[in-house]
Amino acid sequence: MRMLLKDGKMKVLTLSYDDGVVQDARLVEIMSKYGLKGTFNINSGMEFAEEYIRRIFRKTLSTEDAKSLYLNSGNEVAIHSLTHPHLEVLSEEEIIYEITEDRRNIEKDYGVIAKGMAYPFGTYNETVVEILKRCGIVYSRTVNSTYGFEFPENWLLLNPTCHHNCEKLIELVEKFVETKYSFPKMFYLWGHSYEFDENDNWEVIEKFAEFVGNRDDIWYATNMEIYEYVKAYNNLVVSIDRKIVHNSSSVDVWFLHQDKKYCARCGETIYL
């Protein structure tokens, strides 16, 4: 058996953007235009100094505006810590507070179960990773570019393909789109939407989305949708002779068996 992605596809694309800023509205508009989806990581307790807002972040979204923007467009809202500190310099108690309070606020304000995350500043250590497990976090994005398309071995060290300002972006996305793969591949783009204003380069994401979007052979998904799909495939229950497959998850799963495509619907047992 070999995993296929949703609807039997071999490619999935996702985006991850941090800090919940007003520029996300323009980004979501571009994403929706070309059928892209992704995850937006929120600091629910962040209050930037006015100078910092003006110089870097411009302005953060209100909770109501963020809720309408992200959820109505089918995107995911995820954790980014309560106040965006370097988690690795905090005590265990402080790390737990930063994660659990951000999760609590997001779940209350957005009406979702929040178990995904992106590391603030992209920094972490072994202690931080272990605490995330205890806090119920199932994946967390780093800022360590792989320049590749592989799925992570450890979802709490979820490395992206690249940042949107990467010099290799066009080369990488062309390779991803044009190559026929025998195994599933994932393109993962990350950044901050305010950077498009700071660098006056909105054309970067517009051209990227136009090129990679609305393709029949690519699944466009949030970070959590991908995590849950891979988990569902790995949790398939298979008979010893590989002729009976039971899918106990709530996600439909596609796979190859002896070069034939199958779909095990959620809760279904199929006979090969």
Descriptive account of the structure:
- This protein has 272 residues and is α/β, with parallel strands linked by helices.
- It folds into 2 domains: 2-231, Glycoside hydrolase/deacetylase (TIM Barrel, Alpha-Beta Barrel), CATH 3.20.20; 236-271, no CATH class.
- Helices cover 35% and strands 20% of the residues.
- It contains 9 helices and 14 strands.
- It has helices at residues 24-33, 50-57, 63-72, 92-110, 126-134, 169-178, 194-198, 202-212, 223-234, and strands at residues 2-3, 11-18, 38-42, 76-79, 116-118, 139-141, 162-163, 185-191, 218-220, 237-238, 244-246, 253-257, 260-264, 269-271.
- Strands 2, 3, 4, 7, 8 and 9 form a 6-stranded parallel β-sheet that branches.
- A hairpin with a 5-residue loop joins β10 and β11 (244-246).
- α4 packs across α5.
- It is globular, with a radius of gyration of 19 Å.
User: Given this structure, which CATH class of the largest domain is correct?
Assistant: Alpha Beta
User: Alpha-carbon distance between the termini?
Assistant: 11 Å
Secondary-structure element series: EEHEHHEHEHEEHEHHEHEEEEE
Largest sheet: 6 strands, parallel
Counting DSSP H or I runs of 4 or more residues, the number of helices is 9
Secondary structure category: alpha/beta
Domains, number: 2
* Residue share in β-strands: 15-25%
Overall CATH architecture of the largest domain: Alpha-Beta Barrel
User: What's the number of extended β-strand segments?
Assistant: 14
Rg measurement, Å: 19 Å
Any idea of the CATH topology of the largest domain?
TIM Barrel
What is the global morphology?
globular
Quick check: average pLDDT?
94
Q: Unreliable runs, pLDDT <50, ≥5 residues?
A: none
Helix content: 25-40%
CATH level-four homologous superfamily name of the largest domain: Glycoside hydrolase/deacetylase
